[in-house]
Design brief:
Blueprint: E1 3-8, H1 9-14, H2 16-23, E2 28-34, E3 37-42, H3 45-74, H4 78-97
Parallel strand pairs: 1-2
Antiparallel strand pairs: 2-3
Length: 102
């Protein structure tokens, strides 16, 4: 379970090195406040990467569901999608390299 601790910006400024050691390899998140408002979070790089991966997975799942609903709405078959993909790849190739046909 993640442990959150609130620190002041002044404390963060005075003790930055110690705070880095504190969050390194731990699940502790330090919430930095300035004038009573949260402005930043200090957490380990491993925790940061985990959050990024989780967010990427959630974004992909949202995209997949929306894409699936659109496919159903348009009543497209797998063959239709494959043909559309092939056509798009050919168009991108022509844009990138020009028409190479003899």
């Amino acid at each position: 379970m993640t442990h959150q601790v609130v620190i002041t910006a002044t404390e963060g400024h005075r003790s930055f090195g110690k705070l880095l050691k504190r969050v390194f390899g731990s699940d502790e998140h330090l919430i930095v406040e300035r004038d009573g408002y949260p402005v930043a979070v200090l957490l380990s790089y491993q925790e940061y990467e985990l959050l990024r991966r989780t967010q990427a997975i959630e974004s992909f799942e949202q995209f997949s569901h929306a894409f699936g609903r659109e496919i159903e709405r348009q009543n497209l078959s797998e063959e239709d999608l494959i043909n559309d993909l092939k056509q798009a790849r050919q168009e991108i190739f022509r844009e990138q390299y020009g028409d190479l046909s003899p």
